[in-house]
Amino acid sequence: GADGIDPSLRDAAHAQLSFGKMVWPHLLARAMLCEQIYRAAAILVGTPYHRI
């Protein structure tokens, strides 16, 4: 919701993922996560992702 995740849910989680202290719309957060996974995979296999 607008106030973020309930503290009890946060405490029960095994891991947390954060894009900073800002609250992002769900669809934008998904796109940001996909881009970061793609970027990491591209760098790991040696493609020039950041030099295009």
Question: β content, as a range?
Answer: under 5%
| Overall SS class | mainly alpha
Mean pLDDT comes to 86
Model regions low in confidence, pLDDT < 50 over at least 5 residues: none
Helix content: 40-55%
Could you give the order of the helices and strands?
HH
**N-end to C-end Cα span:** 38 Å
Q: What form results from the Cα inertia axes?
A: elongated
Number of strands: 0
Compute the number of helices.
2
Structure characterization notes:
This protein has a domain at 19-51. It is mainly alpha-helical. The protein starts with 6 loop residues before the first helix and ends in a 7-residue tail after the last helix. 50% of the residues lie in helices and 0% in strands. The mean pLDDT is 86.
In short:
By secondary structure, this protein is mainly α.
